[in-house]
Amino acid sequence: MTAPSETTAPAEPRRILVTGGAKGVGAAIVRALAAGGYAVDFTYRSSGDAATTLARELADAHGVAVNARALDLSDTAAIEAFCAAHEETSYYGLVHNAGQSYDALTAVMSQDKAEAAMQVNFWSVTRLVKTFIRPMIRARSGRIAVIGSVTALQANAGNAAYAASKGALLSYLRTLAIESAKRGVTANYIAPGFIDTDMMAPYAAYRPQMEKQIPAGRFAAPDEIAGLVAFLMSPPAAYITGAVIPIDGGLTAQLGVHR
Fold it and tell me: Which has the closest alpha carbon to 161: 208, 109, 236?
């Protein structure tokens, strides 16, 4: 029995790995998780200054460890090295946010560019899961969430390669969910619609027209995606696995033909 004068050492914060966490939706996810008391490692490819600043800011604000890790998910050798260097790290959660777009009509699609998108959007996460799910299984507790896309659910002209990569991610994730459920690990697919980030800047001229087609009448804010991720990492989400969760303002709930 513990003597009344003794204190119990606080438990170490659970650690979560987030890919593509330096800016946009990824940064919002890192902020939400750190605010929730999680220790966070997040990867970045080219935004080194932003990543370092974010990590320092959140560590100071919330008193948890937040680490920025350089990693190019298009580089298979770099991923292998990262996994080898961190294979003893026990992550409670893995959030795959990093993504690579590629827009082209099917008749002119470049295989090289399509394969590059598939590497970042799909193959990279399969390699990370292969390494980091093992400690989750041993602990019989873990959370995996991926940021997919509504394009995996409904077709959009010019998005064949991107949608295929996100569709592959969806099929993989749901299989992972049924394989890991009895071991206390959840795996869920988030399917955002249009999000108000720098990625949408090239389509600024079309934004009013795009928003008219969304029942909610606007793009999502990054914090709204991050809030869903934070919930899926939380204890009340322990029975949610294999789910496909659109967060698109009602976009996929409606028919695409308007009167």
Answer: 109
Q: How many CB atoms lie within 10 A of CB 174?
A: 17
Residue 159 per-residue DSSP state: B
For residue 256, is it within any domain? no
DSSP structure class, residue 123: I
The amino acid occupying position 85 is A
162 is catalytic: yes
Q: Count the alpha carbons within 13 Å of 58 in the hemisphere toward its beta carbon.
A: 29
Model confidence over 163-205: pLDDT tens digits? 999 999 999 999 999 999 999 999 999 999 999 988 777 778 8
d(CA 153, CA 73): 24
DSSP 239-258: T--S-EEEESTTGGGS-S--
The domain that holds 67 is classified in CATH as 3.40.50.720
Distance CA(7)–CA(13), nearest Å, equals 18
Structural domain for 231, as ranges: 15-197+204-250
Q: Which of 92, 162, 172, 189 is catalytic?
A: 162
Q: What is the pTM of this model?
A: 0.92
